[in-house]
Structure prediction request, 235 residues.
Amino acid sequence: MVGDGRGMRRHLLACTAVALFGAADAQAQVSAQVSVASDNVFRGVSLSDGHASAALEVNYDNDAGWFTGAQVSSTRLARENHDHPELVVDAGYAHALNSTLTWEAGASYAVFPGFSYWNYGEAFAGVLAENWSARLHYAPDYFGRQRRTIYAEYDFQYALGERWRVIAHVGALHSAPAAAEGHAWSYDGSLGVAARFGSTTLALRRVAIDRATYLYPLAETSGRADWILSLAWSY
Prediction:
């Protein structure tokens, strides 16, 4: 998924306006976003059991390059019949290499109230440009599964006009030791379009993962490809 380039970037249900439609909003020290989506897909896996999901996100960054953010979203994991919240917080530092490239580094932590055994932290580092970003994430205990993971991702956008963008994402997740089915690698990707109308961003993406993965606390996982429709309001 295309992240916002400064604040929360891990569990976004919709493509944010900062990344997709220029940097004007990125100058603000405080920003917020409310989003809804037909599915809460994270790294190719549904965290809402195929149900619609909502999220609220708040980010802060200052002129010195430090940033922090928090996002709460609805999930439905491990045979639960009702939605439960997930809270993700992050903090880090970003610095411009030149007029077109910025590097960033930081850490994030995911909290599942009532299910603390799923909580986990990640460190991340990346390089961002106007229309692409590349990041590497490391988790010592991914989703509390006692497995170390490295996740590499690349996001790209291409302008089709003032309002429209093509958006693309590829990611690769490596776990050590290998997951229960004996595989150490899984791959995900997405391709879609997004349009901005004022402070509203509408996106439609085709999301896929190459195989089942048991790194997530899900009732059932399988190779999948789904259409995801999302709507976000930025402030």
